[in-house]
Design goal:
The chain is of the alpha+beta class. Helices cover about 40% and strands about 20% of the residues. It has a five-stranded mixed β-sheet. Strand 4 and strand 5 form a beta hairpin. The longest helix is centred in the middle third of the chain and has 17 residues.
């Protein structure tokens, strides 16, 4: 029984190639793929000092459930092609919030309404942000859609 409890408490390790072992490098690669699928409102939170199960949260938005799924599919496909396999995927059924767990990086992809409802940005506001500059076309798109960020 004790041995079974130890197994439950252990977090599975993701399959990551050496080139993506650094959490910041992995997060930035994920963000690039997401931007190719028109993800916006990109935030990368460094949560190392706040929690012990991951280093970074990548939080992204998509315009619709279909786009959220497309962003998640693209991230998974591109990361798999690079040799990175997530240890967990959640939220595919609802489509409003999909989570991809790459161990040191956990990706949250939301519709606008779900992002506002769950408000992870407020929850993790104490975490330092990793600087990322969204491409101009992403900023233009967000402005055209009247999204504030």
């Amino acid at each position: 029984m004790e041995e079974q409890l130890k197994k439950i408490g252990k977090r599975q390790k993701p399959v990551l190639p050496e080139s993506l072992q650094d959490s910041k490098v992995l997060a930035l690669e994920i963000v690039k793929v997401a931007w190719d699928r028109n993800a916006y409102q990109t935030k990368i939170y460094d949560v190392r000092k706040l929690i012990d199960y991951t280093d970074l949260f990548v939080v992204l938005s998509g315009r619709s459930e279909r786009q959220v799924a497309s962003i998640a599919d693209s991230i998974q496909a591109e990361m798999k092609a690079a040799g990175a396999v997530p240890i967990g995927v959640e939220g595919r059924q609802s489509g409003t919030w999909i989570l991809l767990d790459y161990g040191s990086v956990v990706v949250h992809i939301f519709t606008r309404d779900a992002r506002e409802y769950y408000d992870l940005d407020r929850l993790w506001a104490d975490a330092p942000l990793v600087k990322v500059q969204e491409p101009q076309w992403v900023l233009d798109f967000a402005r055209d859609e009247s999204y504030d960020f």
